[in-house]
């Protein structure tokens, strides 16, 4: 059996709660979350020690100990990307397959630094939104996408990744600029690609399911409502990554996504004006 170590800002959160059982089932018992480290104990949450006792996972007192004793590593902190670079320093130097949860980095520069560190130490590493693996997207048969309109729930800060990730996976990384067109209650961003192609993301609250409207350069259009088990597909992909050491997501896409999200937040300060992305 291969051991997996969790490294988190705090452990009593939804991803840490669900991943252990899902990974063990998807790997047919070949992989198990055995060790964990939590940087902080948050008021209103189980302490890291209490969470580990509940889950039957051994709490270690340092990231170094988790890295040393684990075969594979998962850096969590899904709602606090600002801690990813700090939490990932030792994992990305380890040479061991490492997954960094969404949202990968709080800005473009941090994303570049993290990939450079992993490459210097030959550490297989990737990050993704689980939405990338929704069957509706992976089964899409459409060439030359000209425009996408994406819809979904949640805040821009935490949930924009789930709309931007599929857009970049479908339209590519040649992103030039962004423009904020939303309100305080309904964030909205236009993403400008090369050759006049564009996509929009829109957040309309808890009762708005993830969905996409697409139009191709040939005039074909489709509407996709995401109803498949995308988390199950993601976990299966994660297990394959640990088995092979081959990341499923090109780093260029992850870096482009980080730039869109960073500059999207900046664009909110000057609505209805294009903001160029870094080259």
Automatic annotation (TrEMBL):
**Signal sequence interval, chain numbering:** none
Q: Specify the Gfo/Idh/MocA-like oxidoreductase N-terminal domain's residue ranges.
A: 47-122
Q: Which Pfam families is this protein grouped with?
A: GFO_IDH_MocA
Q: Organism's domain of life?
A: Bacteria
Q: Enumerate the GO terms in the molecular function aspect.
A: nucleotide binding
Q: Which InterPro entries match?
A: Gfo/Idh/MocA-like_OxRdtase_N, NAD(P)-bd_dom_sf
The record ties this protein, via Gene3D superfamilies, to: NAD(P)-binding Rossmann-like Domain
Q: What is this protein called?
A: Gfo/Idh/MocA-like oxidoreductase N-terminal domain-containing protein
Q: Which organism is it from?
A: Paenibacillus silvestris
């Amino acid at each position: 059996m291969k051991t997996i170590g969790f490294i988190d800002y705090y452990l009593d959160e939804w991803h840490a709660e669900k991943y252990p059982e899902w990974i063990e089932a998807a790997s047919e018992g070949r992989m198990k979350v055995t060790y964990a480290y939590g940087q902080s104990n948050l008021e209103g949450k189980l302490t890291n020690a209490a969470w580990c006792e509940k889950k039957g996972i051994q709490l270690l007192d340092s990231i170094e100990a988790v890295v040393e004793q684990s075969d594979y590593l998962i850096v969590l902190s899904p709602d606090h990307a600002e801690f990813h670079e700090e939490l990932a320093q030792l994992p990305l130097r380890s040479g061991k397959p490492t997954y960094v949860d969404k949202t990968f980095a709080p800005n473009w520069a941090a994303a570049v630094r993290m990939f450079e560190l992993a490459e210097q130490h030959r550490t297989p590493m990737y990050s993704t939104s689980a939405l990338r693996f929704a069957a509706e997207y992976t089964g899409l048969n459409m060439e030359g996408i000209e425009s996408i309109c994406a819809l979904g729930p949640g805040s821009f800060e935490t949930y924009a990744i789930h709309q931007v990730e599929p857009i970049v996976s479908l339209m590519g990384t040649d992103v030039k600029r962004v423009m904020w067109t939303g309100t305080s209650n309904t964030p909205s961003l236009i993403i400008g690609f090369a050759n006049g192609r564009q996509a929009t993301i829109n957040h309309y609250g808890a009762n708005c399911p993830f969905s996409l409207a697409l139009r191709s350069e040939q005039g074909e259009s489709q509407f996709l409502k995401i109803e498949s088990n995308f988390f199950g597909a993601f976990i299966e992909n994660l297990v394959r990554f640990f088995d092979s050491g081959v990341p499923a997501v090109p780093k260029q896409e992850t870096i482009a996504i980080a730039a869109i999200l960073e500059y999207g937040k900046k664009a909110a300060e000057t609505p209805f004006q294009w903001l160029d992305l870094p080259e």
